[in-house]
């Protein structure tokens, strides 16, 4: 499967076309809208998310509630577009009209794509960069991920995400007995954190950052349960599923690092305490006593839950801006301000779920069949049985 996205932050709409989704998958707008609403929530989000009430239109590829196997086009309109029709207009304008619009951006924000993007594409108005580099684009990545999640759930594979850390406040108790429990509890938290006490401190940290015109980042975790062993491959660098998932997480705006299982801690612990002992019983087949490696050995799933974490840096747009340089005059100025969140870590955890779900779904389709959901389901079930008694 693959998908492209198109659309600017204040343009008319965001669009994605999903290619290769198998036929026969039950899919409704509700499945997608549910995930879009989850992305919009979270303590620390700015005014923009109050303006937008994201709703998807399925423009192709689905008939009577089931996918057809043809490309699926998903469209999410920007409510804010009506206020930006002049600034973001498609038709040519004169220099005078351009002057009138007065939303030209010439003072790049440190940490954002503004300056590099302007140099690369030759834009003197950095709005031409920020409109696309904005994380508004993640709306349709979440829409694509919602389709992947629906596909995975049909195969008995569940995806969940939560927030482990915001602005230096860490969840102390991030234990859960089932993924359902994790989902229910984190859905009730405004910061998607399992640890209620830490959640309150996170919200305070966000409020404090906002009051100071500052921003804070954090760490999110995604868990995928029910993937059979042997998905991905060790035989070639570009077939390793952990590396594909890592790339997908890194591609989320503002993400600066990825780890699986105990991740970077593995550098500080001997092998005898890192590697997960192998056990077997008739009912469950092969398992690992622990899951320090986060469900991967040799670029392949080992049947344990996939556990992947990503670190998000603080948001670059600051209401008390850092120093920058005006590209027209080369004078020192404060960076420009664009309506912004003070912390988007809770929303980013929903985006992370979506991109991980897409990679896992894609790997399953590559391995177990591409055209029909029923035959894929059968093949996955056969693989589960085969590996249990292997
Ligand atoms: C869900 C989400 C919301 C974001 N909201 C904002 C925002 O309101 N303002 C901002 O400056 N950056 C925001 N970002 C981060 C920027 O999009 C990102 O830092 C920028 O595109 C530069 O890319 P890089 O940080 O990956 O290098 C957000 C990121 C995510 C994942």
What descriptive keywords fit this protein?
390 residues; alpha+beta; 4-stranded antiparallel sheet; 17 strands; binds flavin mononucleotide
Helix content: 25-40%
Number of helices: 12
What radius of gyration results from the CA coordinates?
22 Å
| Span between termini | 30 Å
List the helices and strands in order.
EEHHEEEEHHHHEEHHEHEHEEEEEEEHH
Share in β-strands? 15-25%
Total strands: the figure is 17
Major beta sheet summary: 5 strands, antiparallel
Helix vs. strand class: alpha+beta
Regions with little confidence, pLDDT below 50 for 5+ residues = none
Trace the largest sheet across and list its strands.
Answer: 8-7-9-15-10
Q: What ligands can be seen in this structure?
A: flavin mononucleotide
Average residue-wise pLDDT: 96
Shape: globular
Structure notes:
It is a single chain. With about 400 residues, this protein is an alpha+beta fold. The chain has helices spanning about 30-40, 50, 95-100, 115-120, 125-135, 140-155, 180-190, 195-210, 240-250, 270-275, 345-370, 375-390; strands at about 1-5, 15-20, 55-60, 60-65, 65, 70-75, 160-165, 170, 220-225, 255-260, 280, 285-290, 295, 300, 305-310, 325, 330-335. It has a 5-stranded antiparallel β-sheet with strand order 8-7-9-15-10. A 4-stranded antiparallel β-sheet has the order 1-2-6-3, covered by helices on one side. Strands 4-5 form a two-stranded antiparallel sheet. The protein is globular, with a radius of gyration of 22 Å. The model has no long low-confidence stretch (mean pLDDT about 95). The site of flavin mononucleotide has 19 residues, from helix 11.
């Amino acid at each position: 499967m693959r998908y492209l996205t198109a659309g600017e932050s204040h343009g008319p709409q965001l669009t994605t076309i999903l290619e290769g989704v198998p036929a026969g998958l039950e899919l409704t707008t509700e499945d997608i809208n549910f995930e879009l609403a989850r992305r919009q929530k979270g303590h620390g989000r700015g005014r923009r998310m109050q303006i937008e009430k994201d709703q998807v239109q399925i423009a192709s590829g689905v008939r009577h509630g089931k996918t057809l196997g043809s490309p699926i086009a998903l469209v999410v309109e920007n409510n804010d577009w009506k206020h930006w029709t002049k600034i973001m207009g498609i038709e040519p304008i004169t220099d005078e009209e351009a002057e009138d619009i007065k939303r030209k951006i010439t003072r790049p924000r440190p940490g954002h794509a503004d300056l590099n993007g302007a140099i690369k594409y030759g834009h003197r108005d950095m709005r031409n960069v920020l409109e696309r580099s904005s994380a508004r684009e993640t709306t349709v990545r979440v829409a694509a991920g919602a389709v992947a999640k629906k596909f995975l759930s049909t195969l008995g594979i569940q995806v969940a995400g939560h927030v482990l850390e915001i602005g230096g406040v860490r969840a102390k108790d991030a234990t859960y007995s089932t993924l359902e429990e994790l989902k229910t509890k984190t859905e009730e938290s405004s910061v998607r954190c399992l640890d209620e006490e830490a959640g309150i401190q996170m919200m305070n940290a966000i409020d404090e950052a906002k009051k100071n015109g500052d921003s804070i980042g954090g760490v999110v975790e995604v868990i995928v349960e029910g993937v059979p062993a042997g998905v991905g491959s060790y035989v070639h660098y570009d077939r390793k599923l952990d590396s594909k998932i890592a790339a997908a997480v890194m591609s989320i705006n503002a993400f600066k690092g990825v780890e699986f299982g105990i991740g970077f801690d593995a550098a500080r612990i001997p092998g005898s305490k890192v590697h997960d002992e192998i056990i077997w019983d008739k009912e469950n087949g092969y398992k690992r006593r622990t899951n320090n490696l986060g469900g991967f050995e040799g670029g392949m799933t080992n049947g344990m839950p996939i556990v992947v974490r990503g670190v998000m840096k603080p948001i670059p747009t600051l209401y008390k801006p850092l120093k920058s340089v005006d590209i027209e005059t080369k004078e020192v100025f404060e960076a420009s301000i664009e309506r912004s969140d003070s912390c988007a870590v809770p929303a980013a955890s929903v985006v992370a779920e979506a991109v991980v779900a897409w990679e896992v779904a894609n790997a399953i389709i590559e391995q177990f069949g591409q055209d029909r959901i029923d035959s894929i389901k059968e093949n996955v079930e056969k693989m589960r049985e085969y590996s249990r008694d292997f």
